[in-house]
Structure formats: C-alpha cells, structure tokens
C-alpha cells in the first residue's frame, strides 16, 4: 500500500529561548502528535540551499510541542534567531521511537550533551519502570530539574569536573544494575554504552544521530550500518536495538 505523503505545516513560534550557552528551547502552541523518540523536520528560513533540520521531540502535551536544540551550523543558527509569532515550517512526526509501553523494570537512561533532548519525553512516558538518569556534559548542565519527578536518581558527569563526576558518564554507568538501557548522545559515547551492555547481556536501545536531508527515507543520506544491512536512520530509526548496530 502506498504511503500517505506528508507535507510541511506552517506554524508560529510561541517561545524560543536560550537556556544555556548555545542551547535553545523552542515551543509551539497547538495539538501535535508524536511518540517518545520521534522527531520533526524544522525550517524557519528562506535561504537556500539550507535544508530543514531534524529536531527530536523534547516534550509534548495537549497544548504544545517543545524542541530542544543546539546551534551547530547555519540551520540551527537560523532557528535560534526566530522570535515570537515568527513563521516556522515543520513536518512530522517522523521515524520510530522507543517502545515505552513494553519497557519495564529498572531502566537506565544514558545521555551525552544535547542527547538529553528526546529523553525528557521518554522518561515522562515510562509508566511501568523505575528510571535512573545518567547525563554527561562538557561543563554546564541544563534541563535536569525537568526530570526530577520522573526519575529516581540523576547521575551527572562533566568533562571539566564543574558538577558531578569529572570525566565521562560511561565511567560511572554500570549496565548490570538494569533490565533495559536507553541511550542518546555523541556516537562514541553510544558505541561505548552498546559495548558495555553487550558484555553484560543487557538490552540497549540507541537513538542514532545522523545528518538528514529529507527526513522520510527517500534520499539515503542518513544510512546506518546494521547486521541486517544499511538502514535509513530517518525512516527505519532513529531508534535501533543496540545489538543490531555495526560499530
């Protein structure tokens, strides 16, 4: 059966604030759909050839959708310049997400940097689990207070030792304490988490971050190597079983 074509929707920015150095929280009022781990393609500029940017859902409720992003290039810089009532084009929800309804027991959510963005919506949705959060930052932390009522423990590492453990979050994470691990962050960190979980035979699900062009699986820019062959991160992912990923 032919898939239904998805089009961009024009919306208005309700809030776009910098919550940390180069990290922004973008809010759009309205009713939107999306599962934890899914993303939207966002475009708030007319410049070419800048492509839309894939931004994961940070929070979703009946009144609004929230995105968390960092300024790392021309596209996200343009997003950061949007103000109240500015027009923004979005398309989604896209990709697959975490199967939160079937995740149970003790769960570790492991993040690095902006990889924390989709995991708030994930922890909000984990109703049958006891969740511990592990989050690594370079120096300053952000968004942690939003997690407090959804997790049992928050474990922090910073590379400069400003807050929490000095070093990497993988140095204080022990997968053998958990039934399931959910991970999102820089690829080297996720590779380390996958290896650690494999050694302890603990299932791990990772949300892969790849450059995307179309967001719907047509252009094959965002391929990810798996044991079943190359997969499209935007269409077949971004969430994959760690055991299937080829490191």
Largest sheet: 7 strands, antiparallel
Portion of residues in helices? 10-25%
Strand-and-helix sequence, N→C?
EEEEEEHEEHEEEEHEEEE
Gross morphology:
globular
How many DSSP-defined strands?
16
Which structural class should the secondary elements be placed in? mainly beta
CATH architecture of the largest domain: 3-Layer(aba) Sandwich
Q: What is the number of helical segments per DSSP (H or I, 4+ residues)?
A: 3
Low-confidence stretches: none
Q: How would you write the strand order of the largest sheet? A: 1-7-4-5-6-3-2
Distance between the termini: 34 Å
CATH topology of the largest domain: Rossmann fold
Instruction: Please report which band the strand proportion falls in: under 5%, 5-15%, 15-25%, 25-35%, 35-45% or over 45%.
Output: 35-45%
CATH class of the largest domain: Alpha Beta
GO molecular function, one term: electron transfer activity
Keywords: 2Fe-2S, Electron transport, FAD, Flavoprotein, Iron, Iron-sulfur, Metal-binding, Pyrimidine biosynthesis, Transport
Family: Belongs to the PyrK family.
Cofactor: [2Fe-2S] cluster; FAD
